[in-house]
Write the structure tokens for this entry.
Amino acid sequence: MRRLLATVATSVVGVALVATPSAAETNYDPPLVVVNSTTLLDTGYADLALSTGTGQIFLSGGRGSTVVNVADLDGRIVGSVGGQSGANGLVLSQDGSTVYAALTDAGTISAIDVATRTETARWTIGENSCPYDLALAAGRLWFSYGCYGYGTGGRIGSLDPADPGAPVTFDQGGRWTYSPRLESGSINDHLLFAMEEGVFPNVLASFDLSGGQPVRRIALEHLTDVGQFTVDLDGASIIVVTPGEYQFSSKVARYSTADLSEIGRYAAPGRVVSIAFAPDGRVATHGDDGGLAMFAKGEYEPRWVAFKDFSQGLDPAHRGLAIGPDGRLFVIEKYISNSIMNLTAVDVTPVATSFTVDNPVMPVLVRKPYTITGTLATFDGSTTGARTVHVTRSDPRGSVTLADVQTAVDGSFSITDKPRTVGETSWVLSFDGTDRLLPAAYTITLPVTRS
């Protein structure tokens, strides 16, 4: 991939200037680079689980499927796990070593070792139980189950994922018309959220698991007609998609999981059918008009919006979006009959970077240690990873190249230097860029005194 050169240079005397990526200007139709696009015939799509540690994406096909497909982070199908009849909801263990799959057609739940792509355990839910979706919370694996048409309705149960021999607990979440979708922040989270699909008006139900048994928090159920929802990895907030004010639009809002008070509303294009959280706090949305949007952590106006049709004749899939490492986005599209599935890996390139330098502590004294702190930031709000920053110091005696500085994963850095003479002294910070990240430069000029 060709690296583009774009350098931002800033100079100021006496004070530090903060230079950050502009969040006010949304980049519409950015250069999306399709890394790979794979279409699978005669297989459906239900859910995905992304393991960044091993660089694998596990893809379930829903009822009628027999395998869980595995793709790499380039979006290429690299293998499959057999014997997974009707694999539906997927959830990844907190350490990323195991994928759990609800096997609707088999009436069981399986555990798949991520590294070897082999099944390591299986729990029997029962004949005609149709396990549907999964979530990890309060130290247990929660599952929804119930076959439509058998008169049992939907139910919620749980099991101990660390002990395949432990008994399964059934009928813990009250009765539902259909088996609900489940979400939680992590296995340590004590809140479980559930929502029925295909029932309108539906409600977003919340269960308190802190007492060992799910207790339904009825007061929070003022969110109705919920289409999609996802819980942040720390369990502190939940993003919910409900009908928008206008036709073919959605209200995409973030709520506190403590009391479901609204925190903010995302300006997402179109009627949103899929949403995704990234570990660094970014949020992505995908609409039925093909509109993709990326939001930086804590922001509700998108950093970029793009309208793309990656596979003609296919529609964006529910639960069909994931944010991978290095800014990569994974998009699922499928045919309305769920017989065809397409996986596209997308890079949003290039991404502008800039330096944010903290306000200086004055005075700056000659031959005394002085520290400059700041952050290397990106336009789209993604983390830069550990990067090398070059430093040059210029003063009345000339220029000197100082030792390179390594940033932390979040881009933060600290530079300590001893100015060698009085007068104006400048420090030039520069980042060379990568295939995805554009170069950046920053100059800070400060007066150096004796006292």
Q: What stands out?
A: The radius of gyration is 25 Å. The chain is about 0% helix and 45% strand. Residues 1-24 have pLDDT under 50 and may be disordered.
